[in-house]
Amino acid sequence: MMLTATQLYHSYGDQVILSGVDLTVQKGELLSIMGESGSGKSTLLSILAGNLRPDRGSVLLDGKEISSMGERELAALRRTSLGFVYQSLNLIPTLNARDNILLPLLLDRKDLSRGKEKMQELADYLRIGHLLTAFPNTMSGGERQRVAIARAMVHDPLVLMLDEPTGSLDSRSTREVMELLRELNQSRGVTVVQVTHSADAAAYGTRTVTLHDGRLIES
Question: How many angstroms separate the CA atoms of 86 and 76, rounded?
Answer without folding.
Answer: 18
